[in-house]
Amino acid sequence: MERLKLYYRLVKPGIVYSNVMATAAGFLLAFAQVYEFKWLAFIGVIFGTMFVIASACVLNNHIDRSIDTKMARTRKRATAAGKISSRAALVYTALLGIVGFGVLIIFTNTLTVMLGVLAYISYIVLYGIAKRTTVHGTLVGAISGGLPPVAGYTALTNQFDIAAILLFFVLVAWQMPHFYAIAMRRRADYASAGIPVLPVVKGMRVTKVHIIIYVALYIVVNSLFTVTGYTGYLFLVVMTIVGVVWLVKGIRGFKVETDEKWALKMFVFSLFVLLLQCFMLSVGGLLP
Question: Is the N or the C terminus of the chain less surrounded, counting Cβ atoms within 10 Å?
């Protein structure tokens, strides 16, 4: 049982579940446009995305095992601690990937499969390189994180339109404050591992400025769902209010005494924002 828990934790379940939730939101937004719910496509994109992301996370853990040993929050990961061998991790990665892409191929469409491949490569290769070499690694990593809701949308519509573009950018805009908050809280960890995240390279104040910019962008992108007719005005009102609250919390960060405590509050609130975002995307096209 303990062995199973190690393998379960290796897929980074928090990342898997949050991305699957976003995938479902994208599918349901599409349903509001076409009014045709295809159960096989829904089940296929949900489980396919789940296994593809799990595969990418396991491979990422394997690749980053030397870095993980230098960080307090990651040194206990099974690959970093040597509890799961490199061979076992790679076999696990392959099995998850075969199942995930196989499900996408069988139950969705070529466009959705291509998005899955793009997300996988961008996360493992592009982000893997960027996070070690540039302060913009967080933004590069946001590319893969912005694609799951798009895959959910295209699984039903089989087209890449304005809604798909907005889904991508709203998740990118959400991710940046979320992961900058993590980087602020764990700045010492990242510094010791030699990862050039923004708080390490540019400092806390500059990071706060970037957080404000991306939260503002998040508000604007959300408004475009209604402007372009994909959601009703209730979506606009709710998401604008939560966005403004998030923005105010961010602005207050310039007056706090402890940056780490403020970053924790911003991180927790960003999780609430994601939950509300996914819910409102799921129903926003059906509401007035």
Answer: N
